[in-house]
Every structure is written in C-alpha cells, then in structure tokens.
Amino acid sequence: MRYFPIAINLKDRFVVVVGAGKVAERKVKSLLCAGARVYVISPRANTYIKGLAKKNKIKWVPRVVQRSDLVNARLIIAATNKKTVNEYVSKWAQQFNVPVNVVDESNLSDFISPAIVRFKKALVTIYTDGKDPVFSRDLKNYLGEKEHDFVSYRNRL
User: Fold this and answer.
1) 8 lies in a domain?
2) Taking Cα atoms as reference points, which of 52, 139, 65 lies closest to residue 102?
3) 4 lies in some domain
4) Total structural domains in the chain?
5) How far apart are CA 104 and CA 133, in angstroms?
6) Does residue 5 fall inside a structural domain?
7) Beta strands of the chain (E only): which ranges?
8) Per residue in 50-68, pLDDT tens?
C-alpha cells in the first residue's frame, strides 16, 4: 500500500487550485461540497469557474500562480496542462509543508484523489494505489449505476 486512505475536514479551510479547465472544475466542485474556501489561480478560466467567481462561491485570481499564493493553504491541487507550472507548485507546496496533488503526476504529489460514488447515506471512495485510475473511474461508474439495486437490496434487509 503506497497511499494511506484518509478523509480530511476542509470546512472553511483555504484550498488553492492552480488551473481552471475541466479537471480543475471537477476538483473545485468536490472541494465546495466539502465546504472549503477555494481559491483558483489561472490566467484563463472556463465558463463554470468564471460563474462561480461571479457568484462569490470561489475566488478566481486571473494570473499565473506565484509562490506567495500558496502561503497558509491547507491543501493545494495543481490541475494545469503545463508541466513546469505543476513542478513549481509541487516544489513550493513542499517548501510550505502543505499537501499537494498534481493531477496525473503522482511522482509530484503527496496524495491522490480517489474516484467517488455518492449515495444518500454513504460516500464510497475508490483508488488503485495510483496504478490504474481508469479502473477506479470504471468501477465508480459501475457502482453509480448500481445505486438503485443496492438501495432496493438494503431496504429488503
């Protein structure tokens, strides 16, 4: 086991997401569900990220990330398609001793994000120790499709 599974309380905690595309959007959605105070740093942002910023659900800083942006963060996620930016974010996070996830770069990350299936009364997370994220995603989708069957089965018990 390379990664220790853990759930972390991010309610009202400062979390930085570097990048503002589709992958960052998924991360931001999950972080907001967890109650985090989300700061997105990226020169450009997709429509969804811009909309959240306009509604004051997140703060979007429309520029290239700087080392000082990571001060006091509880958690950092680098979700850019620029390798050098991701490497700098990882290095800076380590200097500040803040856990960092560089999406699709486990060698630059302190943690990985599992696939998540939400049920009414449970949250199921799936990960393959970073070895097969496609399998994690497929199993998540399978379990999500089976939610109705599972709930029906549970109600019969």
Assistant:
1) no
2) 65
3) no
4) 2
5) 9
6) no
7) 14-18, 37-41, 59-61, 75-78, 100-102, 115-118, 123-126
8) 999 999 999 999 999 999 9
